[in-house]
Amino acid sequence: MLKLIQNEWMKLWSKKATWVMAGLLIVLLFASAGITKWIGSTSPAPEADWQEMATMDMVMYQDQLQNPDLGAAQTDFYEQQVAITEYRLANDAAPFETESLQQQVLDSHLMLSLVTLFTVIVGAGIVAAEFSQGTIKMLLTRPVKRWKILTSKYVTTMLFALLFAVITIASTAVAGLIFFGIGDGTFLVWNGSEVVEGSYWAEALKLSVLSLASTWMIGTFAFMLGTVFRSSSLAIGVSIFLMFVGVQVVFLLQRFEIVKYYLFTHTDLTQFYTGFMPVPDITMTMSLIVLTVYFLIFMVISYWTFAKRDVTA
Amino acid sequence: MSNEKIVEIRKLSKTIGNKQIIKNLNLDLHKGEIIGFLGPNGSGKTTTIRMMVGLMRPTEGDVLINGKSVRHDFEASIEKVGVIVENPEMYKYMSGYKNLVHFARMHKGVTKARIDEVIEQVGMQNRIKEKVGSYSLGMRQRLGLAQALLNDPEFLILDEPTNGLDPSGIREFRMYLRKVASENNVAIFVSSHLLSEIELLCDRIAIIQNGELIDIKNVNEHQKSRYYIEAKPAEQAKQVLEEIGFSVQPHDRGYLIDTEPEHIPGAVKLLITAGIDLYTIQPHRTTLEDQFLEMTGGGEIAQAHTK
Ligand SMILES: Nc1ncnc2c1ncn2[C@@H]1O[C@H](COP(=O)(O)OP(=O)(O)OP(=O)(O)O)[C@@H](O)[C@H]1O
Ligand SMILES: [Mg+2]
Predict the structure, then answer these.
(1) What SS3 state is found at A191?
(2) Residue B88 and residue A143: Cβ atoms within 8 Å?
(3) Which of residues 48-107 of B touch A (CB under 8 A)?
(4) Cα separation, B210 vs B197, whole angstroms
(5) Distance between alpha carbon A6 and the CA centroid of its chain, in Å?
(6) How many CB atoms within 10 Å of residue B144?
(7) Is the pTM of this model over 0.90?
(8) Spatial distance between the Cα atoms of A17 and B261, rounded to a whole number of angstroms
(9) Which of A22, A104, A279, B84 has the largest count of CB atoms under 10 Å?
(10) pLDDT per residue over B108-125, tens digit each?
């Protein structure tokens, strides 16, 4: 199996397109940091200092807590924010500025949708291309069972996603260091009983891992479409369409029970830590179960069609 | 050649939709033997071969290679088999060498030394580091053969391996095949509709038409001695020949007689004495091509045969 993955990895990186994607990702991340810097330097300095901002946030948090529709995860979130903000004001502990390495790193998970995009391209093509090139017949006439070949391709797609996620965080950090440098401020967390100083790296890592659930699901979906329809353009098109539209549909379905079984209600796992939940009464456990079920369905369809298919290409 | 079986095709059938493409095919191949698989376009050669190498699932029947079922024990059955199905497709964006490394990794125990050995065997040393995209068709065929030989196969399956090669390319390819057959003692199953091609290469020929095996022939089977005679007036000549006991069949602008060479001078004398003008008399060899066309009814594309 290791050798098969090695093969897939070699093929992947023998393609120019893969290097172009990696280059593009890095360029985009640096550009994004550059633009932030440029906007910061052209717009006038904010009138309010951080204490005033924090006081305003506090009002907003309190306000939210009055909302009767608030879910459990949201209530926790806002209560923690209140506690942290109180602590900040009481102890004169400023948060990070936007223009700092730390805040850039904390926000780096927002850039992972780029990784999803590239993972869709790779996942959609990794099986489909073998069919369109005609190489599938060379691959399937070796003494290796078909499910092993498919597994090596799936694992390679996921390794690619992981590598690109690491590139994303690393590039963001490097760009943040170059453009902004290390800023002042402290990172505070609620440890269950009190507000303490936390590691922003750990927080960034946690949010990134949670964000990758979406990459994982959409990547797996694209992989399935590529395997079933043997056309990477179709698989890429449909997956990217769903990636953008799928989340919007959550708002349409919001009032109906069915929304709880809908994939895109659950793809963003960071929602349990950011307070923004279109469907408030779901839990992390529920999301993980739904995602796992979808994952299994996607996998069964992929493996079944790949193993059974008569290859006439 | 020995009598040890290496491949047994058993009751192989394939139905797609309501169309039976392969009908109850049975065939044994022996070690060290080169078998030609001949049939007109659309007769089912590719389909049969795809089932033999696990690309397609038979509707019924099975293929045993070294006694192991391709359907139920795929990895073990295909371990010592080399395959080229139609044009060997390689990863164009990688070098020939990387392509070989790629396929070598999919077999057990193919060493770097073996890769180099195979490259040398097909004469690709000079271009092996270049991208496959820059290869000519002939070079791709050679690389295809190289990958099929990597695992030191006991059995090679080739479907129309000379597709798209020019005559010298075909000749060269045939020589490679002969060489590997004798040097590596492999059995070869090669499909083609190029009869002359098969005739020059194979020990035995299996003929398929409309999905059915219609004949298996030994190539060097002794041919009946036949002569072609063109004489005028034709009717009279026929009479003379029939009188002395030859069976006479009309052929072209003259007649065919089945006889041994020693009877020819006598026949000629008789014809001359009878005042017949003799234009041509020559040995008539039916080529495999003629036999094939005879058998498959002119070699037209197999008609659609919906049940
Ligand atoms: N996927 C398919 N669906 C329906 N019919 C098919 C399919 N594949 C092949 N056939 C039919 O099966 C028959 C045999 O095809 P096959 O490709 O095996 O012929 P062949 O002997 O290899 O011909 P050629 O000499 O042209 O390569 C043809 O009539 C073809 O139309
Ligand atoms: Mg064919």
Answers:
(1) coil
(2) no
(3) 50, 53-57, 74-76, 78-79, 81, 83, 85, 87-94, 98, 101-103, 105-107
(4) 21
(5) 25
(6) 25
(7) no
(8) 71
(9) A104
(10) 889 999 999 989 888 888
